[in-house]
Amino acid sequence: MSSEQRRIVVIGAGSGIGAATAAHYHEQGDFVLAVDLRRSDTPAARHEQCDLRDAAAIDGLLERIGSGWDALAYIAGVPGTAPVHDVLAVNYFGMRLMTEGMLPRLREGGAIVTVASVAALGWQQRTDELADLLDATDLETVRNWQDAQDPAYPVYSTSKQAAIIYAKRLAPAAWQKYGVRINTVSPGPTETPILTDFETSMGKEVLDTVKATLGRHATVDDIVPVIDFLASPAARWINGQDVHVDGGFVASISAGAPIQL
């Protein structure tokens, strides 16, 4: 148990990485608010339900939970097999509303960690393309933006690219005004209940290639410690960063020919 109890909000705590993160904090003695669309039995001090596709529901949640929190872990996410508007609403816009709503509710020295994805690779080349999406301030505008996009481009990648860019753009101001850090974590393929959805949307052969290269997919136990670290005082000077937690797969395809040992 930690020497001092912290107060942590975990969004998407019903299963997968979110459930493991909530359980981790609960087991070390922190006060955990576990939030999910549906009821769950995830170990936590308090549970709330929230539809992240609904701005009014998010506002209601924020009003109910009050202030005095130490960290927000936004881990909710839906795969590319879901309706395109839901993907953008949950993975990007809901995260944005929760982040902006939580900033004044976090203590100085607090942190926000959002789970993105290595599927966001190439976000640096799409900043201009995503500018109007990042400027959107309501869900209807987000939906209209998506309706005008090439349907062949994976909306899941778009949602995670937008999440990373948004976090990086907000991080300096969040630190200056609130003393709160914002970072993202980008896992590679991870053994969770929605892995089969990713096999469908991204192609099983693609994920099998990743697994063959690294020897296995990640587990939640590979990801949770990184979330924990970034949300902790030990990471007090890390802000606006996207941390790949992928066993080195991106490095193996982006840095040139590997050095043989």
From TrEMBL:
<dbReference type="GO" id="GO:0050268">
    <property type="term" value="F:coniferyl-alcohol dehydrogenase activity"/>
</dbReference>
<protein>
    <submittedName>
        <fullName>Coniferyl-alcohol dehydrogenase</fullName>
        <ecNumber>1.1.1.194</ecNumber>
    </submittedName>
</protein>
<keyword id="KW-0560">Oxidoreductase</keyword>
<dbReference type="InterPro" id="IPR036291">
    <property type="entry name" value="NAD(P)-bd_dom_sf"/>
</dbReference>
<comment type="similarity">
    <text>Belongs to the short-chain dehydrogenases/reductases (SDR) family.</text>
</comment>
<dbReference type="InterPro" id="IPR051122">
    <property type="entry name" value="SDR_DHRS6-like"/>
</dbReference>
<dbReference type="InterPro" id="IPR002347">
    <property type="entry name" value="SDR_fam"/>
</dbReference>
<dbReference type="Pfam" id="PF00106">
    <property type="entry name" value="adh_short"/>
</dbReference>
<dbReference type="Pfam" id="PF13561">
    <property type="entry name" value="adh_short_C2"/>
</dbReference>
